[in-house]
Amino acid sequence: MVDTLTREQVMAHRIAAQGLHRDRPLDALFSLGLQDSGPTARLALAARTDGETDPLARGLADGWTHRGAPHHHPPAERNAIAAAAHPFDDADAGARLHWSGPEQRRVGIPAREAVDRAADALVAVVTEPMTKGAASGGVTKLLPDALLRDCRPCGCVHVNEQLFRLSAFPVGVGLDPTGRTLLLTPPPAGWSRPVDGDAGRAARLVLDYLRVLGPAGPREVADFVGTSAAAFAPAWEAALPGLVEVDVEVGDAAQRSSTRDRRRAWLPADDLDAALGAPEPDLVRFLPPWDPMLQARDRPLLAPDEALRKDLYKIIGNPGALLADGEIVGTWRPKASGKKLTLDLAPVVPLAPDFRARLDEEAERVAAARGLRLAGTTGV
């Protein structure tokens, strides 16, 4: 018999699994990766811990992984993540590079070979910390014209941007975001280039995603990784023996009926009991844009209100999400002036009477994580 989880149970499970109760280690979250976009990683940690909010001070390593975006990962898992991040065949590589069929034919080089060629060039060029521009220029000189692109913003020809990003982490090239200019860093001492990625190694991405953003299906995992469900199917199949299928009721409590929509989804088998018995999320948190909670690809489940969902997921300039008692109840934006920070809130539902007291404490955490002093909140 397949167990059924309500939408409220799914939200409660994700909140607990991601450490938003501040009561557990963040190992699973770090394994998936913390996206590093502006202050996102610091604020994501402030929402989950009373301790250090600097991911680098916690010893995490930074590099381009999922979708070519920068993420922080545990150094001890770097080699395994690098192998998982390496496209395992041409279909997977082409999907991660966003190459259409005509584009692949125009290039004339198999997509996975293209990634390997760019990776070889990066290893040859990045022998010391250097700017992205310098690394890109060096790699461009080593690649065939088919892998280069005209770049209008910089007015030159250089290596395809997504190819450049996806080729770095599989060979140990990381990022140093601590200075005024982002630097690419050579492989760490003792690094051994991982064997070619394969579907079995990529299966860890399925488990990493489902541990903190499950239950979900193959389409959601593939979208998070930055590939297509069809191309990523071998990795999903490799992970499937360790998963358990559940039914997820999509609508919220106010919409419950005998015809309530359900969808198939999966969890790691050893997480099922935790999902069925997830604690009630009696908490308030400021989630930054690109927070792990907001990275879930089943966005209608996360935010059923369409207007709120559109506001949360803009093309540019996303706001943060205000999480209260298991629901996203609005958005927030920071406004810094000198050393002071004001948080502008836009709730979309009536808030509980005790919300203000809990809100103020969390707002102080946001300011502290940004090294600023809280001037106040507006909108509530």
Write a compact overview of the structure shown:
This protein has helices at 7-17, 27-32, 40-46, 78-85, 90-96, 101-107, 111-125, 132-142, 161-168, 199-213, 218-225, 229-239, 272-276, 299-302, 306-312, 355-369; strands spanning 3-5, 34-35, 61-64, 70-73, 130-131, 148-151, 156-159, 174-176, 183-185, 243-249, 262-268, 284-287, 320-324, 327-337, 340-347, 373-378. It has 380 residues and is an alpha+beta fold. Pfam families: AlkZ-like.
Shape, please? globular
Order of strands in the sheet with most strands: 12-13-14-15-16
Q: Give the C-alpha Rg.
A: 21 Å
Helical content band: 25-40%
Overall pLDDT: 92
| Low-confidence residue ranges | none
Distance between the termini: 46 Å
* Count of individual beta strands: 16
Number of helices: 16
Account of the protein in words:
It comes from Actinomycetospora flava. This is Crosslink repair DNA glycosylase YcaQ family protein. Residues 50-75 are annotated as: Disordered. Pfam families: AlkZ-like (PF06224). The structure is a single chain. This protein starts with a strand and ends with a strand. A 5-stranded mixed beta sheet has the order 12-13-14-15-16, with helices on both faces. Helix content is 38%, strand content 20%. It is globular, with a radius of gyration of 21 Å. It is of the alpha+beta class. Among the domains are: 103-193; 284-378, no CATH class. Helix 7 (111-125) packs across helix 8, helix 10 crosses helix 12 and helix 11 (218-225) packs across helix 12. It contains 16 helices and 16 strands. Strand 13 and strand 14 form a beta hairpin. The mean pLDDT is 92.
